[in-house]
Amino acid sequence: MRILFVDDEFLLLESLQMMLRPICQNWQMEFVESGAEALALMETEPFDVIVSDLRMPKMGGVELLNEVMKRFPDTVRVLVCDPEEERLVDARTAVLHEFLFKPYAAEALKTTILRACGEDDSAGGGKLETLMAKISRVPSIPTLYMELIALMKNPDAGIDDVGAIIAKDMTMTAIVLKMANSAYFGLQRVVS
User: Fold this and answer.
1) Cα three-residue angle 39-65-29, rounded to 5 degrees
2) Which pLDDT does position 139 carry in this prediction?
3) Please, which residues have CB within 8 angstroms of residue 167's CB and are 6 or more apart in sequence?
């Protein structure tokens, strides 16, 4: 996997490089100090992931990742920022795959990148495939799911009807709220 890290602080990039090399030997990593350098490098060679700091002079992280989205839509985009930064609201308007809040450990960064790429190994090295192979029958579809699908096919159904079904299941409610509040939708307020 090819990953590009962008931060205007040279010492931070250097320490990041030393921190990641031992745990990410199969990653090809590049480190640059500006958005302009990042875009120029991406024009010459493809990257699977770009990880950018929010606050940088000339071209900030949001502007950079929006430009990456336009020019290189297949590149996974991760934004790094302080959780209490005022500009965080502005950052959510960018189309990002993941946020990573400072300070972070190398393992947290690795997990975030793998999750954003859909390669999260939380099931643990093929254990999920092994478990799936042992299942003798497919479980039945939950009743609430069937109710929801039937309601969604009804042109007269309203959002309140959908909400009433989702509210019956706490897990489904949590998933819908998580999705609604994700950076993907870029809402300016938290949905509860």
Assistant:
1) 60
2) 53
3) 173
First to last CA, the chain: 37
The stretch 24-43 carries a mean pLDDT of: 92
- The region, left, alpha or beta by phi > 0 then psi within -120 to 50, assigned to residue 58 is left
By CB atoms closer than 10 A (0-12, 13-18, 19+), residue 96 is buried
What span, in angstroms and rounded, lies between the C-alpha atoms of 135 and 176?
Answer: 28
- When pLDDT is cut at 50, 70 and 90, the band that residue 98 belongs to is confident
Cα 15 → chain centroid = 23
Rounded mean pLDDT of 124-130?
Answer: 48
The C-alpha atoms of residue 117 and residue 50 are separated, in whole angstroms, by: 11
Q: What are phi and psi of 112, to 5 degrees?
A: -60, -45
pLDDT digits 0-9 by tens, 128-157: 444 444 444 445 457 777 788 888 888 898
Higher pLDDT, 188 or 72: 72
Axis-axis angle for helices 106-116, 10-20 (nearest 10): 80
Which token pair is 46? 């493809």
Q: Is 17 in a helix, a strand, or coil? A: helix
